[in-house]
Each structure stands twice: as C-alpha cells, then as structure tokens.
Amino acid sequence: MVSGKPKPLRPGGVTALGVLAVLIGLLGIVGGAITLTSSDIVTLALSAFAVVVGILYLVTGIGFFRGNGWAWILGLGVSILSLARNIAEATEGGIVYAIPGIVVALIIIYYLNTPAVRAFFGKATMPAKSG
After folding, report:
1. Does residue 57 fall inside a structural domain?
2. Which residue range forms the structural domain that includes residue 76?
C-alpha cells in the first residue's frame, strides 16, 4: 500500500454484500430485459432503468469482492438509484414488487456507511480502541 498502513480486514458482510449485489444485478438485467417489450411507456422506461441499474450492481458486486474503493462509491450511488426506481415503481402500482427493493437498498446504504465497512474501502479510518 502507498500509505504503509495495512488494509483493514474484510468485514464479513462485505462478501455477502458482493453476492447480493451480483444477484440483484443479474435479476435486474433479466427482469428488466423481459419487460422491455412492453407497449406502456412507463413500464418500458422502468424496465430500461432496471437493466442499467442491474449492470451497475453487477459491476459493484465484483468491486466488493475485490475490495476496490470505487465499489463503495458505486454501491452507494446505485443503491440510491435503485431506491428511486423502486419508489417510482411503487407509485405506478407495483408496490408489492417495490417493497423488497426499497428495503434492500436501504439496508445496503446503511451497511456501506458503518465504520468498519467505510474503513475497509478506504473511506474513513476506524477509531482507535481504548482499553
């Protein structure tokens, strides 16, 4: 490392988050692609957005596995985009499908902002333990 400090150990949830991001990505790509043939413009737009967010989640998951600092930024951004998409879907009558996406996006946003995860991705330093 350039700074000479060893990288913090990977928090256990980061690997799980990587798996989750890859799965969400694949589901978003496949699910969005299936409904891209819709004649409804709103459904078509949400489907295209789902494909884009799915690709971004897939890339993010790979970055999580590797512990890349950019993956933290992308993960936070794509989770916010996913949250917005799911809220839009809920307002269009798809609340049953949107609620799990909203919950998952909020959990990811929260977890990425915990001190150990921020430190792992080089976004903050962990406070020294006293005692």
Report:
1. yes
2. 12-120
**pLDDT tens digits, one per residue of 96-127:** 888 988 998 999 999 999 999 999 999 876 55
Domain count, the chain: 1
Task: Give residue 129's pLDDT.
Answer: 60
31, 50 Cβ separation under 8 angstroms: yes
Residue 17 lies in a domain: yes
- The Cα–Cα gap between 121 and 124 comes to 8
Q: Do 106 and 81 contact (CB within 8 A), yes or no? A: no
Cα(33)–Cα(46) distance, rounded to whole angstroms? 11
pLDDT of 58-77, one tens digit each? 999 999 999 999 999 999 99
Within-domain flag for 90: yes
Query: In angstroms, rounded to a whole number, what is the distance separating the alpha carbons of residues 91 and 10?
Result: 38
